[in-house]
Amino acid sequence: DAGVIQSPRHEVTEMGQEVTLRCKPISGHNSLFWYRQTMMRGLELLIYFNNNVPIDDSGMPEDRFSAKMPNASFSTLKIQPSEPRDSAVYFCASSLRDGYNEKLFFGSGTQLSVL
Amino acid sequence: KQEVTQIPAALSVPEGENLVLNCSFTDSAIYNLQWFRQDPGKGLTSLLLIQSSQREQTSGRLNASLDKSSGRSTLYIAASQPGDSATYLCAVRDVIQGAQKLVFGQGTRLTINP
Predict the structure, then answer these.
(1) B52's torsion region: left (phi>0), alpha (psi -120 to 50) or beta?
(2) Could you say which of B46, B99, B105 has the minimum Cβ distance to residue A104?
(3) What is the pLDDT along chain A (115 residues), one digit of tens a residue?
(4) Phi-psi domain of B99 (left: phi exceeds 0; alpha: psi -120 through 50; beta: other)
(5) Phi first, then psi: what are they for B84, rounded to 5°?
(6) Residue B80 C-alpha, separation from nearest chain A C-alpha, in angstroms
(7) Which residues of A touch B51 (CB under 8 A)?
C-alpha cells in the first residue's frame, strides 16, 4: 500500500490567498484525521471524519478553516483567507476503524508558509 | 485537561548504548498510549501501542511500558544505532476529551552518535 498521500508537499502563499491541502487515506481505512504541527503548540487535532462524516471539528481554529471528505478516498483542508500564523506543517492520518485501539498512519505532511 | 510531557527535550548518546525515553500524562483515564517516531521532514510512524489494560509492549529492540496509575510511560531502546536518530513522541488517547483525540507530547529529539 502507498500509505497516506498528501499534496502538495510544500506550499508558499501570500496572506489573504486561499490554500487547499489534499489527502488520500489508505484504501479501506474509514477514519481520517487532520493535524497541525508547530514548534510552539506541537501536534494539534483539527478535525476527524468517520465514514466520510465529520465527527469532531472542535479543533478547527477559526471559520477560515474548513474540511471536506466527499468520498472515502479523498479529503481537503481549506484555509480562506490564509494568514501568516497559519504557517505550520499539516498532517493527514487515517486508521482502519473508528476504534479506540487502532493505530494511526500519517502522511508526510504539507509544509505551509504564508508570507 | 490532559497534558503530556516528555523529558528530556533532546538526548545525545553514543552508538550501542541502551536508553530510556520518558513520557508523563496528567490524567490516568486513558484508552491507550502510543509511541511514534518522526524523522525530519516526514510524518509520524507508529512504533508501539499499549492499551490501558496492558503493562508493556515489545517490538524488536523497542520496549514500551505503561504505569497508568502514576501517569508514566517509558520507551526503552536497546543497543542503539545511528538509524534510531529521530524525534520520538508519545500520545495518549484521552477519555475525557473524546476517544479519538490523541494528545501528544512535544517529543524527545534523539541523536545516536557513531
Answers:
(1) alpha
(2) B46
(3) 679 999 999 999 999 999 999 999 999 998 899 999 998 888 999 998 989 999 888 889 889 999 999 999 999 999 999 999 999 999 999 988 655 667 889 999 999 999 9
(4) alpha
(5) -80, -10
(6) 25
(7) 101
**Position A13, amino acid:** T
Cell digits for B47?
512504533
| Residues of B within an 8 Å Cβ radius of A | 31-32, 34, 36, 41-46, 49, 51, 89, 91, 93, 98-102, 104-107
Q: Which positions in chain B touch A108 (Cβ < 8 Å)?
A: 41-43
Burial of A71-83, coded b for 16+ CB within 10 Å and e otherwise, reads ebbebebebeebe
pLDDT value of position B96: 63
